[in-house]
Design brief:
With 146 residues, the chain is of the alpha+beta class. The chain contains four helices and five strands, in the order βααββααββ. A hairpin with a 3-residue loop joins strand 2 and strand 3. The relative contact order is 0.21.
Length: 146
């Protein structure tokens, strides 16, 4: 299926850019008039995916993060967050709640669980040493007519 509209941005894996990514996704999707809860869900999932890149993909350096936001027929939103970092050697394990490769005193290990709770579908592709690609999918419900 071909996207009706797409945007792509790239930014450095700096913690200050997490808010930028969240805001950019929300600004792009605003024209589709999502409900406030739908927009909050999307922003939260983007925040978690970008934070995972910042914390885990590039633990000792700054690297590029690419975010692509696409809207498909039927108001289906697909957001892809990709990095070229260390990769995930065991995706099923990484997606388990409470699992973290970060400092357990600072990280809860709930990033993927949070993404899954707010999105219709979350898929992860990764290769050690080559990076990770997280795809977040959510269908925006039609607003009721007034």
């Amino acid at each position: 299926m071909k996207a009706e509209n797409t945007t792509r941005i790239q930014f450095d894996s700096l913690s200050v850019n997490e808010a930028y990514a969240r805001g950019a996704a929300a600004a792009f999707l605003a024209r589709y008039d999502p409900t406030v809860p739908q927009l909050a869900d999307l922003k939260t999932a983007v925040s978690e995916a970008v934070t995972n890149c910042i914390v885990h993909a590039y633990p000792d350096r700054v690297g590029p993060i690419t975010m692509t936001v696409s809207v498909y027929p039927g108001r289906v939103v697909r957001i892809v967050i990709a990095d070229k970092g260390v990769g995930i050697p065991d995706i099923p394990r990484a997606m388990e709640p409470l699992f973290t490769t970060g400092n357990p005193e600072e990280r809860s290990g709930l990033g993927f669980a949070v993404m899954q709770s707010f999105m219709d579908k979350v898929s992860v592709r990764s290769a050690p040493g080559r990076g990770t690609r997280v795809t977040l999918t959510k269908r925006l419900e039609e607003k009721p007519s007034t």
